[in-house]
Amino acid sequence: MLLSMTAYAAPDVSPCVEPSEMLNESETQSNGSNNKPEENTSQNGDAPKVNVVQIITSGGVIATAILGIANLITSARKIHIDGISNKRNLWIDSVRNITANIVCYDLRNICDQGLFEDRYNEFLKNAYILSLYLNIQAPFDRVVSDYLIKFVKSQHQQSDDFTHNRRMLNFAVQVYLKSEWNRVKYENGLNPFKKFDEKKSITTILSSLKGDYVDELRKEYEKYLDNEKMDAPVFFEYVELKCE
Predict the structure, then answer these.
(1) What does the pLDDT read at residue 1?
(2) Is residue 46 part of a domain?
(3) pLDDT per residue over 125-180, tens digit each?
(4) How many independent structural domains does the chain possess?
(5) CA 57 to CA 233: how far, in whole Å?
(6) According to DSSP H, which parts of the chain are helical?
(7) Is 194 left (phi over 0), alpha (psi -120 to 50) or beta?
(8) In this structure, what DSSP letter does residue 13 have?
(9) Which among 183, 212, 220 has a CA at the least distance from the CA of 200?
(10) Taking Cα atoms as reference points, which of 187, 213, 216 lies closest to residue 201?
(11) pLDDT value at position 178?
């Protein structure tokens, strides 16, 4: 009877668990359950901050690259413009010097025919050089060319209009070089979107002056302005005909 009671009572007895083990298990479960929300919170909170930093960094890199390219283009254009300006300044000096050589010739008082021909050939060579500096397609260059031809004729023929033609040639070259100097200053302004307006430059220069020489020069200039096609220069043809 006692054995039977013991057999039935045995399953109701639970194994003995130490209190410290129970405490450790509860702490482990507690810590595990608390860590998961903290990890999620940390990940959800840091993600936007990382994206903002990346955007700001990328924007800074792109802005720096754009500024670098812009500076490179500006520097390259400045070097190009400086090179052109230096050559144009040399061109202006050359035109000024050769014009001074031409207008200083006065062969009217030379009676010896051989001496006259020698001096005239020297003069003609300088006139040739000046004609080669001129642009055959530009209106005001043609004005200078016309006065150059007139002066060569009056020099060869020793005519009475010699002084007038010399003054007009000198004046035309002065206006011409002033306009070219305006071009140099304009190009040094590094304006890549608009070309230099020679017509406006010449018109402005002439409008700031007055006198008979100015009126005559303006009329000579205006007859070329509206011509889409101009006649070929006749300077060389004239020289080949030996001023006949």
Answers:
(1) 42
(2) no
(3) 899 899 889 988 889 999 999 999 999 988 888 888 999 999 999 999 999 999 99
(4) 1
(5) 64
(6) 2-9, 19-103, 113-133, 139-157, 162-187, 198-207, 212-225, 235-240
(7) beta
(8) P
(9) 183
(10) 187
(11) 94
Give the model's pLDDT for residue 158. Answer: 82
* Domain annotation covers residue 39: no
Crossing angle for the helix pair 139-157 and 113-133, nearest 10 degrees? 180
Burial class, 167, CB count within 10 angstroms (exposed 0-12 / middle 13-18 / buried 19+):
middle
Q: How far apart are CA 193 and CA 72, in angstroms?
A: 18
Q: Which domain holds residue 232?
A: 81-240
Position 49 in a domain: no
**51 in any annotated domain:** no
Contact 156, 167 (CB under 8 A): no
Tens of pLDDT, residues 116-138? 889 988 998 899 899 889 988 88
Structure tokens at 23: 């405490």
